[in-house]
Specification:
Layout: E1 2-7, E2 10-15, E3 55-61, E4 81-88, H1 128-134, H2 138-147, H3 155-166, H4 186-199, H5 204-209, E5 220-221, H6 223-234, E6 239-243, E7 247-258, E8 265-269, E9 282-283
Family: Belongs to the RNase T2 family.
Signal peptide: 1-17
Organism: Suillus discolor
Length: 295
């Protein structure tokens, strides 16, 4: 959309990105049975309920640096960072990776070859950042640039990886769920919106802090201290991931989903995967001061 304004006698052209809706067609879901994923096998529409990848994880990172501080790519102060939402089969096995090569936007696929021998070629087209801009979602882009931070590469490379490896293996983000009237890359932007929505359910930093668990280079914590603090506010035990068993780096929250991932209800569940963290002596390190955004 192009608008022309006269400011102090000078004609100025202002370009506004058109705002396009990103939601799927859930009108088709009205009147269908409402059920949690993995808890009922009589699903009638895979766009209305999570079928493939029904055990849904929300993963958050605790990184202490980005490697791109000189490019102003900084970590969010007083918050954990987004990793992704990750679909698993109901038994905890993988729901697949890079399930739709036609929607592969990852410039550095990992893995580059799947277990069945399929080679995943690097994507060389426009960035997913451009996809978001084309939908007029500067608000979403700003939020992602604040809380969804990559290490050692541009943020959009991480976003593209997470969509390509995970969203393509989740039934609710199939292109068919956005018909009629599908606009190219609509489901990509909608996936990013969904990740942000679920991330906002879990203020991990604050939950830990109010229980006296704060980043420290001098004090260690027990696994029970961390899980008990999180359980007290979520009602479920998450999965803790530690580097070398002692450096806390990731937390994953488990769910079954009522309805769609985009707008349905996420029911917290205990992790069904064993933690990689030791029982005692867990470090929750402070971040490098120059790696965090200023207040």
């Amino acid at each position: 959309m192009m608008l022309s304004l006269v400011i102090l006698g000078v004609l100025v052209s202002v370009v506004h990105a058109e705002f396009y809706p990103t939601y799927p067609n859930i009108e088709r879901c009205v009147g269908l049975p409402v059920q949690y994923s993995c808890e009922n096998t009589t699903v009638t529409d895979s766009c209305c309920n999570v079928v493939q990848g029904g055990l849904v994880l929300l993963a958050q990172f605790w990184n202490t640096y980005t490697g791109l501080e000189s490019h102003a790519q900084l970590l969010p102060k007083g918050s954990w960072g987004i990793h992704s939402i990750i679909p698993l089969n109901c038994d905890g096995t993988t729901a697949g990776q890079y399930c739709d090569p036609s929607r592969q936007y990852d410039p550095k696929p990992s893995p580059s070859t799947l277990s069945n021998g399929t080679v995943i070629n690097p994507y060389k087209g426009p960035s997913v950042r451009q996809f978001i801009q084309e939908f007029g979602r500067s608000d979403l882009l700003n939020y992602m640039d604040t809380f969804w931070i990559n290490q050692g590469a541009p943020n959009e490379d991480l976003w593209a990886h997470e969509f390509s490896i995970h969203a393509t293996c989740t039934s609710a983000f199939d292109v068919a769920c956005y018909e009629p009237g599908y606009k190219k890359h609509q489901e990509v932007v909608n996936f990013f919106e969904t990740v942000v929505k679920v991330f906002q359910m879990y203020p991990t930093y604050d939950i830990l802090a109010v229980s006296g668990i704060v980043p420290s280079n001098t004090t260690t914590y027990t696994r029970a201290q961390i899980t008990n603090a999180l359980y007290s506010q979520t009602g479920a035990d998450p999965w803790l991931n530690c580097h070398d068993g002692t450096v806390l780096k990731e937390i994953r929250y488990f769910h079954h989903v009522l309805g769609t991932e985009q707008y349905g209800h996420f029911k917290p569940l205990d992790s069904i995967i064993s933690s990689t963290c030791a029982e005692t002596g867990i470090w929750y390190y402070e971040r490098t001061p120059t790696s965090e955004k200023a207040d």
